[in-house]
Amino acid sequence: MQSREKWRSSFGFVMAAAGSAVGLGNLWGFAYRSSQGGGLAFLLLYVLIVLLVCVPVLVGEMVLGRSTAASPFLAPSKAAGDSWKPLGWLFAIASCGILSFYAVIMGWTVDTFFHSLFVGLPSDISEAGAFFDRISTGKSVFIGQIISLLLTAFIVSAGVRGGIERLTRLCMPLLFGLLLLLAIWAAFLKGSWEGYSTFLLRWDASQLLEPGTIRNAFTQAFFSLSLGIGIMVAYSSYLDKNNKLPKEALGIVSFDTAVGLLAGMITFPIVISFGLTDVISESTVGALFIALPTGFANLGIFGRLIAGIFFGLAFIAAITSSISLLEVPVSSLMDQLNWERRKAVIVSTLIVFVIGIPSAISLDVLGNMDAIFNVLLILGGFLISILLGWVIPRKYDEDLALANSSYRVRKYLKFMLRWVSPPVIAIGLVISLTDLFQSWI
Ligand code: TRP
Fold first, then answer.
1. How many domains does the chain have?
2. In a mutational test of the pocket of ligand 1, which residue from 33, 58, 223 has the highest number of ligand atoms less than 8 Å from its CB?
3. Which residues contact 163 (CB under 8 A, 6 or more apart)?
4. Which of 107, 131, 272, 417 qualifies as a FRET site for 282, CA 20 to 30 Å off?
5. Is residue 4 assigned to a domain?
6. Which domain holds residue 374?
7. pLDDT of residue 1
């Protein structure tokens, strides 16, 4: 048995977890979903879901990882017996599935990055469509996907401290700083205010009850926080007993939400300023890969530079997320079969690559993978809240007490985990499933 690695510092752990949370989902999903009609209602639902439902579950995942010191595959059965084995399978399968299409989108990001710096960007809407076809079809998709997976594998094989923590500790503050600068720049574009008010701040109370908006808010909350499939179980299994989990969870959540908002504050002024309104709501990927490159291209060579910075950043954000996804199958194989890290990385990466091939070939498949796995996240979140809140509630409390989290905080979290998270997530799950099936019909 190899001895278990540990994070170097609490800051390193929070940055790694925030790195997992902040990714393409923030840069593209947030802007896209809030522009889909939800506006401020979407934002409100999103924040409520995150604070009331997701934080207790996030802490739950952390407790599960730390108290068992086991990989996501083994942690549920180790904590609550063999009848919870299927949850371990859900974690492992869902993280491989998500990484498989995530790597394809990362590949587009690589491609857009190179186009920004060395080839050129589309100058208007008609060219934008052709541009997107070029980056999302054909051989270049596979090249991008393979580059992304290889880099991910390389970092994960360097281990928790030497790979994951070292990269994220450096990149996350940098990412945040640069996004802030870009948001300030965007605020001075003509039409910036109209951009915020059209997409982000528009208030329509009826949207609060719209199934599509509710599904969007749930999906965005779970996907963006990397919640529900054992990422935080994996990361927290490398924690010491003296980390104050609730405080760290709040740090992760704030960071993640701030980046989503910043991304919106960059995207929307650009969209209005360059007349790209139709593009953004037309396709899921429209905002990031069609509207932004076209907007940046309008600024000439300077715009291409900014585009290069933006897509470089997007790629960094994506890498710090993809490593967390790969860590789930890798740590599970290491735990279950007693494999070395390198061997586990190679096998997991190959599996993920193969599962991703259909998504690389067809945008339709990719969209469906995204939709299906997003529902699985919500299901995972529901099961975690049942496991920690009802099956082993004492563990939740005891583990939090270890680091002297105050009695009031513990009581609040436990109450939410037992009485609020399960029913609210169950409702979200039913609405999301219904909405998904309807979209298929
Ligand atoms: N949260 C990341 C993003 O916003 C993606 C991600 C990483 C993820 N790990 C995950 C999504 C686990 C769901 C589950 O891009």
1. 1
2. 223
3. 154, 155, 156, 157, 323
4. 107
5. no
6. 10-440
7. 47
